[in-house]
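Posting here for the record, re: adenosine-5'-triphosphate.
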Amino acid sequence: MSQSGDDSRETTTTASTPPTSKVVGVRRLKEVMAKPASTRIFTVANQKGGVGKTTTTVNIAAALSMGGLRVLVIDLDPQGNASTALGVPHRDNAGIYEVLMGSHEISTVVQKVAGFPALDCISSNTSLANAEINLVSMVARELQLKEALETISVNYDYIFIDCPPSLGLLTVNAFAAAKELLIPIQAEYYALEGLSQLLETYAVVKKRLNPTINLSTILLTMFDGRTRLANDVAANVRAHFPNELIDIPIPRAVRVSEAPSYNQTVMTYDPLSPGAIAYMQVAREIAERGKAKDESTIDSTFNSNVVSIHYKKDGEIA
Ligand SMILES: Nc1ncnc2c1ncn2[C@@H]1O[C@H](COP(=O)(O)OP(=O)(O)OP(=O)(O)O)[C@@H](O)[C@H]1O
Ligand SMILES: [Mg+2]
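Prediction output follows.
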């Protein structure tokens, strides 16, 4: 497990006074994160609502991008929360729905996330709520996303697909398109209830649609280490998934929940807060686990000073 103490970010603020204005640039980390041998495509899924799927998706994606990797987030939830957190327009523009319906090429709906060195997003819009119905009549309806992704996945080191809280056709499309499954689990009483249904869907997809998908990563979210319950849930998950569980829980932290209302990830909103530090460590651990065996694929020309962080206040760069 790699927990670098050198994840320095230049920021205009301290942990107690987070910036509330817009991020126009982030500085990459001094210590580059390891590149995978080929694109790692993660589906972030749990049909239980509000367990931290979106928060995990956007913050790990942001952290990996700050680590020098090329990252794409696909917002596959009609709620559009990932698009909001990354500050990309998603109401009136074409997004993943239009790609699934075949009216737009995927490359035409990719948006840059402001301020990040190499972070892109494909937004969702409210039409996506119709996708479950409209997809039913389509040929290869479970494979629409997979086929679309094939044309652009080579441009990225990491792709994260943020799923809605259901196991419908959208989530099945995500499972079919992904190489890995990341399950966020909220450390609370009913945490493991419903997990068996999720694992059943995973098993069916693996058998029928995507034999190579691998449940590689489980993350505990909104963890409160002071409670016995949270520790019991952690012990239970660890017992069942010793290799998959990332043993760095994400603490319940107020800055994490505040960040989306400023169209930011916590990685920029308050980089020194406990939630941001935990997500940074988790991202580094994910990168370590999936790193290419051949060190030569790591970009040795990496320069930590390429981009610097500035917070825009009232139209000015601070
Ligand atoms: N570590 C955390 N500390 C505090 N609040 C958190 C944390 N992680 C997530 N939250 C908050 O919990 C709520 C649910 O999180 P999130 O939207 O990421 O879950 P989700 O699984 O994507 O939900 P949905 O199923 O609706 O898509 C949000 O308000 C979010 O800000
Ligand atoms: Mg969500």
